[in-house]
Every structure is written in C-alpha cells, then in structure tokens.
Amino acid sequence: MSEQDGVFDRDPALDERAFELQGTFRAVLDCMARPGEVCCLSITDAYEVEAKRCGLFPATLMLADMLLDSGTTFCMATMGFEHAARQIASRTHVTPAALDVAACAIFPEAFRDEGAASAVAELTAGTLEQPHRGATVIVECSVLLGLDAQGMRVGSASHACAKSAWELSGPGIDGAAHFSCDRGDVLRARVARMDEFPCGIDLIFVDGFGHIAAIPRSSACREVESWDM
Description:
Blueprint: H1 12-33, E1 39-40, H2 45-54, H3 58-67, E2 73-76, H4 82-92, E3 95-96, E4 104-107, H5 113-122, E5 136-140, E6 144-147, E7 153-156, E8 164-169, E9 177-181, H6 184-193, E10 202-206, E11 211-215, E12 220-224
Parallel strand pairs: 2-3, 2-4, 4-5, 5-10
Antiparallel strand pairs: 1-11, 6-7, 6-9, 8-9, 8-12, 10-11
Helix pairs in contact: 1-3, 2-3, 5-6
C-alpha cells in the first residue's frame, strides 16, 4: 500500500484464484439445479500441482476451496490423507470435525466398498429444524459419464473400473436423468439411508479431468441396468 494514496496493491495470483472459484461456484449451482448433468471445471496448472501434493483430484481441491471457510466443518472420510486434510485446513481455515457431524466430507478415489458405504451411513442428515446441516460430500470417481447442458455425452471412463448406471428423478429434472459412475458403493449406501427431504446429504461426484455431477438431497435415485446416451 502506498503511504501517499492509501491504496492497496492487488495480488494478481489472488485475483486469478477468486476468478477461478467464481467459475467453480457457478458450475456447482448449475449441477445442483440440474441433478445428474455433467459439467466441467477449468483446471489450472496451479491446481494440478497443488492437488498432486495432496493426493487428490484437482477438481476436489477446487470444490474444497469454494465450499469451505472458517465458519464450517470438514472431515476426510478415511485415514491416510492427513497431509491433504492439513493442506485444506490451512488453505480454507475450516474447522476439522468428526465424520458424523462434519458439514462437508471428502471421499478420496481410493476409499471404496464397505468402508465408504459405512462412512456414508455415518454422515449427518441435519434435522427438520436445521436441514441445512445435512452434509455435502465430494466423491472422487474413476468413471463419470453423463450428458451436459447441450445433451452431449461427456465425462471419463477407466476400463479397469466397473461402473453402474443410475436414474434420477425430482426437482430440476424433466422426467428422469441418467448418469454412470464407478461409485455404486456410495450411491447404494445413500439409497439405504432412506433420508426424508428436507433432511439428507448432497453428493458431488468429481473425476480426474474436472468433470462434476451432483445429486442433491431432493433427488431420488435408483440403479438401472443401463441407459441410452
């Protein structure tokens, strides 16, 4: 800041980060408003490098930066990602919390099957008096396929991972929406919770290429054999 004019010098790096997170916020709003639709975040080189250090996907780190702050709570759903949890806390000033009370949780790509399903069962659904306290969950995928806003097939797929197909219905969906991913463990556990709206959990699926798709608590989902893209 200059002593003469009292104006703070702007930090170009912080300006760029703010612009990136505005785009992330817009993409998440779109995905929540249109469940099952796949959007793509613009991943920068800086996020690629930082996410690699944390052992997470770049999109996961972008969502954490956008969602978390000093007024909320967070939990890494599994052990072995303590460094990532510390980095996220340092970046966002979020308060660490136990899984069953955390406002936000991250399920890394390697955290799967019975462990992931059990963790989903622990997540808070909020209460009728405070439904907004239901957890938001970032779930990393190796397979995430669906339609974008233009009806084009988008996403990514690893032939090494088994995927399942899902049909969604509810607010924001004209009839039914469909997508595929390799996180049937999380989705089946979400169905098994049998939460009643407005309580429940919000899921945001991300892959390693910046694709994201959301299933808000207002959406019903069921597993199907396949769907025609």
